[in-house]
Design goal:
This is MFS transporter. By secondary structure, the protein is mainly α. 82% of the residues lie in helices and 0% in strands. It has helices at 2-6, 8-36, 41-50, 53-57, 59-68, 72-93, 100-131, 137-165, 170-190, 196-216, 224-237, 239-255, 258-268, 277-297, 308-329, 332-360, 366-394, 397-419, 422-425, 431-436. The protein is globular and about 65 Å long.
Length: 438
């Protein structure tokens, strides 16, 4: 927390993000509840549940736009105000009609707001690179991850409780979300001059990079194709980044599949239950979230010098044990320990990787590179969920678990084999490496 306490510009970014996430977390759970009350609730809940995929897959484009935006700090507060207007429109519509057209229009406005949110996050990345020292970047990204996860937990629980207490007045929550965007925008507008120096450094860095490219190729054009090409070059020229994005895709494909798969398993195996089905799902979600937060918060624990190869392999190995427990032991307490341990490791992996990206990728395509990574990672999520849920429903749950366990074991071995040697010894995310290169 040292960086948060001592770095005013970084603290402002975190505080604005907290306010933003409070409103978004409250609205997200309430919108799902609203969708469940509509006459076409199955369709509505399904669409509301997967709507997040669209903005996630569009991160490559929002990242490109963020790189091309000259006045990043002004665009950030302006995006908050546009989101405020969008949610004021949603507040005027939600709960006043059960027609499909109104629902889809509200859903479209929400997706646009999410896209603007991702655009704003991409805008902040280059600024963060110039307000946080490289040796403190891992701590800074870990703090952001931990606080974001904690806020989401609290906001979701609070939203589910308040909607009942307020007699399902969905428009109030849309207004609250609009208010949080407005407050975040006002705070950032007031504090915008904290980022003048950072923005100036970003401009100089971008101009230098463009001049270098023109010197090498006088016919070089600046556009989406060039931005995408530069982003891909980061992976082809950096063996560590290439390994991380390939391994991350595999880990995300399997890691995200265990959540819906476990929900299905618990539905048919009451031996796993803690009191009842609902409490069991909630307990696992809480344990996983707490594990993620703990992993991000305790930056300087005994794993600070453990390589990303080892962390990735260990997280996948734990998923093998999850499959074994679900197949044979049916022990909820073992499962809780495994879920917490996996989440703890993932809570370290994501901030470390983000810190490396911010520190190493040039400013002129930093957001676009982050967008490519986010898009690639998200591709694995629906694929993994579809494959293993289909196996469970079409063939059987045990067959799905066996294939899941074998797949996790294979990925564990491949990560260890491909990542052994130079990638492990020269891991730029470890504390030892950072201390040696300060």
């Amino acid at each position: 927390m040292h960086e948060y306490k001592t770095n005013r510009a970084f603290r402002t970014l975190v505080n604005v993000g907290i306010i933003d996430q409070i409103g978004s977390g409250l609205y997200s759970i309430v919108f799902l509840i609203y969708a469940a009350t509509l006459p076409f609730k199955t369709l509505a809940v399904s669409i509301a549940s997967i709507a997040w995929v669209i903005p996630a897959l569009a991160n490559i484009f929002t990242g490109y736009l963020a790189d091309r935006t000259f006045n990043k700090r002004h665009a950030m507060w302006f995006s908050y105000f546009v989101q405020t207007i969008l949610f004021l429109i949603i507040a005027s519509l939600i709960g006043r009609s059960t027609k499909e057209g109104i629902f889809f229009f509200i859903m479209a406005l929400d997706i646009i707001a999410r896209l603007l949110g991702d655009y704003g996050n991409s805008l902040s990345t280059p600024l963060m690179k110039h307000i946080v020292a490289p040796e403190h970047m891992n701590e800074a990204t870990s703090i952001g991850t931990a606080i974001g996860s904690l806020v989401q937990i609290v906001a979701s629980a609070l939203g589910a409780t308040l909607i009942v207490a307020l007699h399902h007045q969905y428009d109030l929550f849309a207004l609250l979300d609009a208010l949080t965007f407005l407050v975040a925008g006002v705070i950032f507008f007031i504090a915008r001059h904290q980022y003048d120096q950072a923005e100036s450094e970003v401009h100089k860095s971008v101009l230098t990079a463009k001049a270098s490219r023109l010197a090498e190729n006088s016919e070089a054009k600046e556009g989406f194709g060039t931005s995408f090409k530069l982003a891909m070059q980061e992976f082809t020229q950096n063996s560590f980044l290439l390994f991380m994005i390939v391994a991350g895709l595999a880990v995300n494909l399997l890691g995200t599949a265990i959540d819906p798969l476990s929900n299905l398993i618990f539905l048919h195996m009451s031996s796993f239950w803690f009191i009842n089905y609902g409490y069991t799902i909630a307990l696992l979600d809480i344990v996983f979230s707490v594990g993620s937060i703990a992993g991000a918060v305790f930056v300087n624990d005994m794993l600070k010098n453990t390589s990303m190869v080892t962390l990735l392999a260990a997280s996948m190995g734990l998923l093998v044990l999850v499959a074994i427990d679900m197949l044979t032991l049916h022990n909820l307490w073992i499962l809780l320990v495994l879920f917490f341990s996996t989440a703890y490791l993932l809570g370290k992996i994501n901030p470390r990787f983000n810190a490396v990206i911010i520190n190493t990728v040039p400013d002129d395509h930093l957001a676009a590179t982050g967008g490519v990574i986010s898009t690639v990672m998200m591709i694995g999520a629906p694929v993994g969920q579809f494959v293993f849920l289909t196996l469970a429903n079409v063939i059987s749950i045990p067959v799905s678990l066996i294939i899941y366990g074998i797949s996790s074991l294979v990925v564990t071995i491949l990560i260890l084999v491909r990542g052994a040697g130079r990638l492990t010894k020269n891991d730029p995310t470890t504390a030892r490496y950072n201390e040696a290169h300060v």
